[in-house]
Records
---
Amino acid sequence: MRSQEPDQVTSESVPGAIGVVARAVRHSFNGLNVIAHADVQVKPGGFLAIVGDSGGGKTTLLRLIGGLIEPTSGQILLSANDQSKQSNSYSQSGHVAPVATLNMGTISPGSDISFCFQEGRLLPWRNVLDNVALPLEMHGVRPQERRAAASAMLAKMQLSDSEHKMPAQLSGGMRMRVAMARALVTRPKLLLLDEPFGALDEVTRLALDEELRQLWQRTGTTTILVTHSIQEAVSLAKEVLVMRGKPGRTLPTIAIDLPTGAVQRNSMQFVSLCQDVYQQMTAQTTQAPEQMP
Ligand SMILES: Nc1ncnc2c1ncn2[C@@H]1O[C@H](COP(=O)(O)OP(=O)(O)OP(=O)(O)O)[C@@H](O)[C@H]1O
Ligand SMILES: [Mg+2]
């Protein structure tokens, strides 16, 4: 049960959630343009879903927002709603302070930003508890403290019984819950999710969607979710951003104004919002996206 909006979050809430503004972002890999133009805005504590054409640059956009790569042009600003942090959040170029790339899960040195990828990317030689504790270990948290924090997060994900299992002993859904616990153990201020549940069966996916939605409403962590599912986007996010074409371009954001509470996927309002997103994803453009100004 949950009924709270992010601005009314409980003691689990994350202070200083990060707001994101990306303006006129363009990105090329080795001269090949993969994002032609991206504008993104997420207020602190907001939840944005990004959907769109495969290969259109969604993962690249997420990596740019997370600071893993620098845009070819344009500006990405991350700001904390906690005033004391604000001045630390910007580098001279207007980009957020550098973020280290770790080869699993990924956390900023300040542990402000967490990633969660489709495959989960658990370390196969570590048990569940030590996988979840890993980001804290990278930040120099003492063994007892980090195990306690990991254990508490696993309890929230209903995985207490699996703390000592190895990743290979888990189902796909359990692996994703462990990956999510690992992404959340540092209490990030910005959570970047790249198709986290894409490989799961529908029933498991719906259950994890619901867990994610409740978690967001309890903590108010700013969340950006890339997904191929329009229904998942509309049921979880407060705003949906469509990326079209190759190289990708963002279209105007669609606000998702559904009543608080469990989403009724057969309601007129839900179906109509899904149609709005679908229309943006499929509408014919008068010119090829590459030729648009
Ligand atoms: N590190 C990289 N080096 C070179 N090209 C890359 C790199 N990462 C992505 N690309 C290319 O950039 C384009 C966009 O890729 P990206 O993964 O961002 O798309 P996507 O929208 O996430 O696709 P999907 O929906 O299939 O996950 C693709 O053509 C891809 O091959
Ligand atoms: Mg992708």
---
Amino acid sequence: MPAAPRSLVLHGYHFSVYTRIARLVLVEKGVPYERVEVNPFSPGVPAAYLALHPFGRVPTLVHDGFALYETGAISRYVDRAFAGPSLQPQDPRALARMDQIIGLVDSYGYWPLVRQVFVHGVFRKRTNGEHDPAELARGLVAAAKVLDALEALAAAETFLVGPALSLADLHLGAMIAYFAAAPEGAALLAGRPRLAAWWRQLRERSSLRDTDPGLPVTQA
Ligand SMILES: N[C@@H](CCC(=O)N[C@@H](CS)C(=O)NCC(=O)O)C(=O)O
């Protein structure tokens, strides 16, 4: 029975890709929620937050006192607990593919796509300037393998695992948005026709626009 949220709070960081995944799921489900800003990269993450998330990462969702961390668990919980379009396919193989893509993205994609290519190719250039071209180069090599694997797994349909939007699209979409903000990342993506076409469509969804964190303002 879908729950009606009395209190639904997402603790997260404005620029966090994992926080954006949870936000995308909430927006696509049409579930209203409140946001509490927590920067996990700043020294001194509040003790009250560490009581919710012992590893001090973001996001954490708290629904009527039920606290949940790990983005995969949050997005599956939101999909099951609330009304709105289902974001998980019924077909066992499509569902397995969705889980596989999410696992692949978490295990092999996040670091090169976001923490190496985006952080060293875009974010740090605009903020503290402490970007490392070698880290960017290593990220691009690792990212190429990830994109090749995703290109091979992606369905020949509008979305990654079939004709309907799924959690896999939102999970990967949040990361590709950052990755493609780096010109080197956009060039690698353009070389994978299925993924490139998928991203061209996905980025036009209102949920993507509504959750866009933007880029940090360039420091002089
Ligand atoms: N496995 C976690 C990963 C979350 C994660 O790594 N979040 C990043 C922000 S996008 C974070 O909190 N990083 C802080 C750090 O690395 O210290 C999840 O799925 O929620």
